[in-house]
């Protein structure tokens, strides 16, 4: 894993590429984002970097104490962990002056440092973007799965948005698992792969395309390995 960062969905805009084609873009605000903890094989059994993001007024006391311990004065709302391949020879965890540092040969992460997108990504690189999609509540099969619905003729007055048959009367005489039916829609973790980085700023990254979630929702951005 070459680079990763936490952010929030800020604005959806449009711009033009070098060919003059209009493309949709999304700006992901990544300030402030800090390295809050580094896990090692000796202590936790695996290697990972924990990032904290988004300044908040109300921070849990244990989290506030942990942040002050590593020299982060900004109270942070979200904490997320990014794991590394523990078998990789390039990944090393060292401790200097009481602070843990993880290095991969190309990049270094030190507890307490601020993570900036310009250090993690480059313009034109491809990234995977993960977020929680908007919740739609309980929906029928027409909206949830794009069903066509039943016929409007031949005496049918209440079948226009019905799912139709969901099983059979004989063997096996049951509804199969995974059958597309009405139910809760949205509010799921969604990952869009291979989005191009259009522009990098000190406080955020501009990617090509639209990303999941509502404005202000937490977003994870990872470099494609």
Structure description:
Belongs to the universal ribosomal protein uL3 family. InterPro entries: Ribosomal_uL3, Ribosomal_uL3_bac/org-type, Ribosomal_uL3_CS, Transl_B-barrel_sf. This is 50S ribosomal protein L3. Part of the 50S ribosomal subunit. Forms a cluster with proteins L14 and L19. The protein is mainly beta and 225 residues long. It has two domains: 1-30 and 117-152 and 181-225, Translation factors (Elongation Factor Tu (Ef-tu), domain 3, Beta Barrel); 32-115, Double Stranded RNA Binding Domain, CATH 3.30.160.810. It is 8% helix and 42% strand. The strands form four sheets. The protein has a six-stranded antiparallel barrel with strand order 1-2-13-12-9-14. It is elongated. The N and C termini lie close together (6 Å).
Mean pLDDT figure? 90
The CATH topology name of the largest domain reads Elongation Factor Tu (Ef-tu), domain 3
The percent range for strand residues is 35-45%
Q: What's the helix-strand series?
A: EEEEHEEEEHEEHEEEE
- The CATH first-level class of the largest domain comes to Mainly Beta
Kindly name the structural category: mainly beta
Low-confidence segments, given as residue ranges, are none
Q: How many structurally independent domains? A: 2
User: How far is it from the N-terminal to the C-terminal residue, by CA?
Assistant: 6 Å
Query: Which homologous superfamily in CATH is the superfamily of the largest domain?
Result: Translation factors
Subunit structure: Part of the 50S ribosomal subunit. Forms a cluster with proteins L14 and L19.
GO biological process, one term: translation
GO molecular function, one term: rRNA binding
Family: Belongs to the universal ribosomal protein uL3 family.
């Amino acid at each position: 894993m070459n680079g990763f960062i936490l952010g929030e969905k800020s604005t959806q805009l449009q711009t033009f590429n070098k060919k003059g084609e209009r493309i949709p873009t999304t700006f992901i605000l990544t300030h402030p984002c800090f390295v809050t903890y580094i896990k090692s094989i000796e202590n936790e059994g695996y290697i990972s970097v924990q990032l904290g993001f988004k300044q908040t007024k109300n921070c849990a006391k244990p989290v506030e104490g942990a942040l002050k311990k590593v020299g982060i004065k900004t109270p942070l709302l979200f904490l997320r962990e990014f794991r590394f391949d523990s078998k990789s020879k390039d990944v090393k965890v060292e401790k200097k002056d009481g602070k843990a540092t993880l290095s991969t040969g190309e990049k270094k992460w030190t507890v307490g440092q601020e993570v900036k997108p310009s250090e993690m990504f480059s313009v034109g690189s491809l990234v995977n973007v993960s977020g929680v999609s908007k919740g739609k509540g309980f929906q029928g099969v027409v909206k949830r799965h794009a069903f066509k619905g039943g016929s409007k003729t031949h005496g049918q007055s209440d079948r226009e948005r019905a799912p139709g048959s969901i099983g059979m009367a004989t063997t096996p005489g049951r509804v199969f698992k995974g059958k597309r039916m009405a139910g809760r829609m949205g509010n799921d973790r969604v990952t869009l792969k291979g989005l191009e980085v259009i522009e990098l700023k000190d406080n955020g990254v501009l990617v090509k395309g639209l990303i999941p979630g509502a404005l202000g929702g937490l977003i994870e951005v990872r470099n494609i390995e």
